[in-house]
Design brief:
Chain lengths: 572, 122
C-alpha cells in the first residue's frame, strides 16, 4: 500500500471516526455500566477511534499505542468478566465490518493486528482492574472482619472485665445446676476456684434449710412467668462455713427460646445477717433483760409494798406507843405540875401568916427584954394577933388539905337532911362579926330542908361571904338570898356592891389556884372558890357569877334539894 | 402632922400591916398603912414617904399597877421595897424596878435593916 493510498484511507477513516465511536458506544451501553456521562464517553471514544485509525495506518505498526488504546477502552468502561468475551467479539466484528466494508482488503492484516493489540491492551487492563477490585474487596472484607473482631474482642474484654472485677459474685449454671462459669468474686465467696466449681452443681453446696426455698421461683422462671427472682439463702463454703447471700437469678434462653443457662448474682450478706442476728439477739436479750428486770422490779415492788405496809404498821404501832407514852408522860408531867403547883401555892399561902406569927412572937419577946419590963398591953396585943394568925394558918392548912383531897379525888360528902335557912343565918351571923362596915341581910323562907353536907355547904357560903366582904372594901350591903327556882332546886345567891370582877376574869375565877399563879397580875380569890366549886359540883350543883348592872358581884349556887329523889325521877 | 417622912406599908393582910406598924413604931418610925395600891396612891399624894413597903398581890390595885402609876407621877419618889411571899421575890422586884426586896417570911431584924437602909434611922 502506497503512502498516498494510506493517506486517502486515513482521511476516509477519520471522516468516519464518529460513526465508529457511535457503534462502540452502543455496544458498550448495552452490556456494561459506566461511570461517565454519555457525552464524555462519546468524546473519549471519538479520540480513541482517531488514535486507533492512526495506529492502524502506522508504519511500522505501533503495537504499544494499540495496547494503550485497548487499556484506555478498559478504563473507559468495565465489563463483567462473564460478559467480556461476547463484548470483545462484538467490538472486533463492528470494527472489522466497518473497516472491511469501506476499505480494501489490503488493510485487513493491519486491522487484525490492531484488533488483537486493542483486545490485548483491553483485557490486560481489565484483568488488572478486576484483580485490583478483587484485592480491594478482599482487603475491605478483611478490614471489616478485623474491625468486627476487634469490636467483639473489646466488648468481650469489657464484659469479661466487668465479670472478673465485679464485687458481686456472678455465675452461670446449666439447667441441672452444673456451674459453667464463676467470676472471682463468686469464687472468693464460696472458697472454690473456677475449676473446682465447674465440678460442682449448685444443690451440692446449698444449705439444706434453704434448698427448697427457690423451687417455685425456678419453676416460674422456666415457664416464663418471671424473668428473674431474688432470694436470700445460705451456701456452704469450701471450708464448711456458711455464707449468707442475696441471690438474684435470671434465665438465658437459646435462639429457639428454650432455657439454656441460669445466671446467678450472689451478694454476700453474711455480715448484714450477722448484724441482724446480733441485733435480733440483742433485742431478744434486751427483751429478756427487760422482762427479767421487770419481774425483778415487780418482785422488789411487791417486797417494797410489803415492807412499806410492815413499816407503816410498825410506824403506826410506834406512833400509837409514842402517843400513849406522850399521853402518859403528859399525864405524869401534869400530875407533877399539879403537885408542884400545890406545894408552891401552899408555901405562898402560908408565908404571910407565918411572917405575922414570927413577927408578933419577936415583938412579944422583945417586950421582956425591956429594962422597965414588958408592957402588958403590947404583949396582950401581940398574943391576940398571934391567936388570930394561928386561926388563919389553921384555916389555910385545912383549905390546902381540901385541895389536896380534891386532887386525890378524896373529898367526900356527908349528906344529911339539913335545914338551909338556919344554916345560912348562922354563917351570915358569924361573918357579920368580922366587919362593921358591911350589912349582911338574909332573904330566905322560914325553913328549907335539903339533903346536903352541912359542914361543906357552910364552908362554901362562908367563903362567898368572906370574898364579898373582902372585895367591897368600902362596905355597904351584902344580900344573901335563898330561893327555890324549881321545886327540886335550891338557889343561894350572895351579892355585894364592891369592886366587881371584870367579865374577862370571871371564867377563870374558879380555876385551881387562880390567884396564886405566878406571873399572873390579877389579885383576888385564893383557894376558897376552887374548893367551893368542887363542893358544889359534888353536890350535883353549879356555881356561877354575874355582874349586876348597878355594880358589885353576884355569886349563885344552885343545888338539887335531894339528889337521890332526882335520880329516881330524872324527868322532873 | 410630923415634919418627918413616914414609912408607908401597903398590904392587904391585916396581920402583916399590924406587925410592921407595931415593929417600926416601937423603933420610933412613923408608919402609915394602906390595904391596896389605890389607897396607897392617895396617901402618897398627900405626903412623900421615906420608903414604901409594897405587897404585890392585893385586891382593887395590885403592886404592879401601883408602881406603874406612882412612877408616872412627877417626882420626887420614895424608894420602893417589894415585900412578897412569891418564890421569885427578886424577879417581882425587877419587874417593877424596885429599889429593894424583902421576901416573906422575914424576921424583925431584917425588916429593921431594910427600913434603916432606905429611910435612915428614925
Amino acid at each position: 500500500m502506497t503512502a498516498t493510498e494510506l493517506g486517502q484511507l486515513a482521511d476516509l477513516l477519520h471522516s468516519r471516526s464518529e460513526a465508529i465511536a457511535d457503534r462502540w458506544y452502543r455496544a458498550i451501553a448495552s452490556t456494561s455500566f459506566v461511570s461517565l456521562s454519555p457525552g464524555a464517553i462519546r468524546a473519549r471514544l471519538v479520540t480513541l477511534t482517531t488514535r486507533a485509525i492512526d495506529a492502524l495506518l502506522g508504519e511500522p505498526f505501533p503495537r504499544e499505542e494499540a495496547w494503550a488504546i485497548g487499556a484506555a477502552l478498559a478504563d473507559l468502561y468495565y465489563l463483567h468478566p462473564d460478559a467480556l468475551s461476547g463484548t470483545q467479539e462484538e467490538l472486533g466484528q463492528s470494527l472489522l465490518a466497518d473497516l472491511l466494508a469501506e476499505n480494501s482488503i489490503a488493510l485487513q492484516p493491519r486491522l487484525a493486528v490492531l484488533l488483537g493489540a486493542l483486545a490485548g491492551g483491553y483485557f490486560e487492563r481489565a484483568r488488572g482492574i478486576i484483580l485490583s477490585e478483587q484485592e480491594t474487596i478482599r482487603s475491605a472484607l478483611l478490614a471489616a472482619h478485623q474491625r468486627a473482631e476487634d469490636a467483639l474482642r473489646v466488648s468481650e474484654a469489657r464484659f469479661r472485665a466487668i465479670f472478673e472485677a465485679a464485687a458481686i459474685g456472678i455465675g452461670a449454671a446449666n439447667l441441672e445446676g452444673g456451674i459453667q462459669t464463676a467470676n472471682p468474686a463468686l469464687q472468693l465467696m464460696l472458697g472454690y476456684n473456677e475449676e473446682e466449681l465447674r465440678e460442682l452443681a449448685v444443690p451440692q453446696f446449698t444449705h439444706p434449710d434453704d434448698a427448697a426455698g427457690d423451687w417455685e421461683f425456678y419453676r416460674e422462671l422456666m415457664e416464663g412467668e418471671r424473668d428473674h427472682f431474688q432470694i436470700e439463702k445460705r451456701f456452704f463454703r469450701k471450708d464448711g462455713s456458711t455464707v449468707w447471700t442475696r441471690l438474684t437469678s435470671s434465665l438465658v434462653r437459646d435462639a429457639a427460646g428454650l432455657p439454656e443457662l441460669t445466671i446467678g448474682m450472689f451478694e454476700d450478706i453474711t455480715e448484714r445477717k450477722r448484724a441482724e442476728e446480733t441485733i435480733r439477739q440483742l433485742n431478744a436479750d434486751l427483751e429478756r433483760r427487760v422482762a427479767d428486770r421487770t419481774a425483778e422490779l415487780t418482785a422488789v415492788n411487791s417486797e417494797l409494798a410489803g415492807e412499806i405496809a410492815r413499816r407503816t404498821r410498825l410506824e403506826e404501832d410506834q406512833l400509837r406507843l409514842l402517843a400513849e407514852e406522850q399521853a402518859a408522860r403528859a399525864e405524869a408531867l401534869a400530875a407533877l405540875a399539879v403537885r408542884e403547883e400545890f406545894l408552891s401555892v401552899a408555901a405562898h399561902e402560908l408565908k404571910t401568916p407565918i411572917t405575922s406569927v414570927r413577927g408578933f412572937t419577936e415583938l412579944a419577946l422583945k417586950q421582956f427584954t425591956r429594962a422597965e419590963g414588958p408592957n402588958p398591953q403590947r404583949v396582950e396585943r401581940a398574943l391576940l394577933t398571934l391567936d388570930r394568925e394561928a386561926h388563919k394558918l389553921s384555916h389555910l392548912v385545912s383549905q390546902l388539905l381540901d385541895v389536896s383531897r380534891v386532887d386525890a379525888g378524896q373529898l367526900a360528902l356527908q349528906r344529911e337532911p339539913t335545914e338551909l335557912t338556919h344554916l345560912i343565918r348562922e354563917v351570915v351571923a358569924s361573918a357579920q362579926l368580922t366587919t362593921d362596915r358591911h350589912t349582911l341581910e338574909v332573904h330566905a323562907p322560914d325553913a328549907l330542908l335539903a339533903q346536903v353536907d352541912p359542914l361543906r355547904l357552910e364552908q362554901v357560903i362562908s367563903n362567898l361571904l368572906s370574898n364579898a366582904i373582902k372585895y367591897s372594901p368600902r362596905g355597904g350591903p351584902i344580900d344573901i338570898e335563898l330561893t327555890t327556882p324549881r321545886p327540886d332546886v335550891v338557889s343561894i345567891a350572895v351579892r355585894d356592891r364592891g369592886i366587881g370582877i371584870p367579865v374577862e376574869y370571871q371564867d377563870r375565877l374558879f380555876e385551881r389556884f387562880y390567884q396564886a399563879r405566878s406571873g399572873d397580875r390579877v389579885a383576888g380569890m385564893g383557894l376558897g372558890l376552887y374548893i367551893s366549886r368542887q363542893i358544889v359540883v359534888l353536890h350535883g350543883g353549879h356555881i356561877g357569877i354575874t355582874s349586876p348592872p348597878d355594880g358589885g358581884t353576884r355569886f349563885v349556887v344552885t343545888l338539887p334539894l335531894d339528889p337521890a329523889a332526882r335520880e329516881e325521877n330524872p324527868a322532873t | 402632922m410630923s415634919a418627918t417622912r413616914p414609912i408607908l406599908v401597903v398590904d392587904d393582910d391585916p396581920g402583916i400591916r399590924e406587925f410592921v406598924d407595931l415593929a417600926l413604931s416601937d423603933e420610933g418610925y412613923e408608919v402609915v398603912t394602906a390595904t391596896d395600891g389605890a389607897a396607897a396612891l392617895e396617901m402618897t399624894a398627900l405626903r412623900l414617904p421615906a420608903i414604901i413597903l409594897l405587897d404585890m398581890r392585893m385586891p382593887i390595885m395590885d403592886g404592879w399597877e401601883f408602881a406603874r402609876m406612882y412612877r408616872r407621877r412627877p417626882g420626887p419618889h420614895a424608894p420602893i421595897v417589894v415585900v412578897t411571899a412569891a418564890r421569885e421575890a427578886a424577879e417581882r422586884a425587877a419587874q417593877i424596878a424596885a429599889d429593894g426586896v424583902l421576901p416573906k417570911p422575914f424576921r424583925l431584924a431584917e425588916l429593921l435593916k431594910v427600913v434603916a437602909t432606905y429611910a435612915g434611922q428614925p
